[in-house]
């Protein structure tokens, strides 16, 4: 790719060696990922279960971004001031359009909602964030899923998630599906 170091033009980022597919996420500790995975076991017949290492909450999806902008993204994550908060994963849901079965929270901390909005605002002012979809906090558990019966969605699920940081994650498409790599973490405060 040419043009590096020159005045940056508004060229749409494409998938080249110079770009990364990025998103900002809440990244659970392994033990929580395993607990979330356990919850999807009884739905195995309904779709494709995501492996434990892939389970997360996306706060902002950036898509393909030039590598040299990683620091700007980390800066936006930091200046938006992530709040330490307690998230309780206690419900299941189903997205009909994307055929995703997910785990979520019946009460999302307001501080987290506000952070998500501040983050998107900062990313947009840095000409980074394109996604405008309304934010719905969720952990995808199953892909290509058929909708479970309502009684199957009833659950005694209760996973306490103490959110201590936010993560900038790179996604690589492989033959086995997406592989994620946490590039940096920004500590939450409060
Ligand atoms: P795959 O695309 O291989 O099925 P994936 O969707 O998990 O796997 P990515 O497409 O790289 O992998 O997405 C990374 C994260 O960003 C996921 O949480 C995904 O739901 C979310 N995401 C992807 N595209 C968008 C989008 N257009 N808007 C909002 N979130 C998105
Ligand atoms: Mg995808």
Structural class: alpha+beta
How much helix is in the residues? 10-25%
Helix run count: 4
What global shape is seen? globular
Number of strands: 10
What is the succession of H and E elements? EHEEHEEEHEHEEE
Distance between the termini: 43 Å
Low-confidence stretches: 1-8
Named once each, the bound ligands are: adenosine-5'-triphosphate, magnesium ion
Mean pLDDT: 92
Question: What labels would you give this structure?
Answer:
190 residues; alpha+beta; 4-stranded antiparallel β-sheet; 4 helices; 10 strands; 35% strand; globular; disordered N terminus; binds adenosine-5'-triphosphate; binds magnesium ion
Q: Care to describe what's here?
A:
The protein has 190 residues and is α+β, with helices and mostly antiparallel strands. The protein contains four helices and ten strands; from the N terminus they run βαββαβββαβαβββ. Strands 3-1-9-10 form a four-stranded antiparallel beta sheet. Strands 2-7-6-5 form a four-stranded antiparallel beta sheet, with helices on one face. It has a two-stranded antiparallel ribbon with strand order 4-8. It has helices at residues 30-40, 70-79, 110-125, 150-153; strands spanning 19-26, 48-49, 57-66, 85-89, 91-95, 100-104, 139-143, 159-163, 165-174, 177-187. The chain binds adenosine-5'-triphosphate and magnesium ion.
């Amino acid at each position: 790719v040419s043009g590096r170091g020159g005045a940056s033009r508004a060229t749409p980022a494409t998938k080249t060696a110079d770009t990364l597919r990025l998103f900002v996420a809440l990244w659970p500790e392994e033990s929580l990922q395993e607990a979330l995975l356990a919850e999807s076991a009884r739905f195995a017949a309904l779709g494709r279960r995501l492996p434990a290492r892939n389970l997360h909450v996306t706060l902002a999806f950036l898509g393909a971004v030039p590598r040299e902008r990683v620091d700007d993204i980390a800066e936006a994550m930091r200046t938006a001031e992530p709040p330490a908060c307690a998230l309780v994963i206690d419900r299941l849901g189903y997205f009909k359009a994307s055929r995703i079965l997910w785990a979520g929270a019946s009460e999302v901390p307001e501080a987290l909602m506000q952070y998500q909005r501040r983050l998107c605002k900062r990313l947009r002012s840095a000409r980074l964030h394109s996604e405008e979809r309304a934010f719905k906090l969720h952990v995808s558990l199953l892909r290509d899923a058929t909708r479970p019966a309502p009684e199957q969605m009833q659950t005694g699920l209760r996973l306490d998630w103490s959110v201590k940081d936010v993560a900038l994650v790179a996604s690589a498409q492989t033959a086995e599906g997406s592989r994620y790599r946490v590039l940096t973490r920004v500590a939450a405060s409060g």
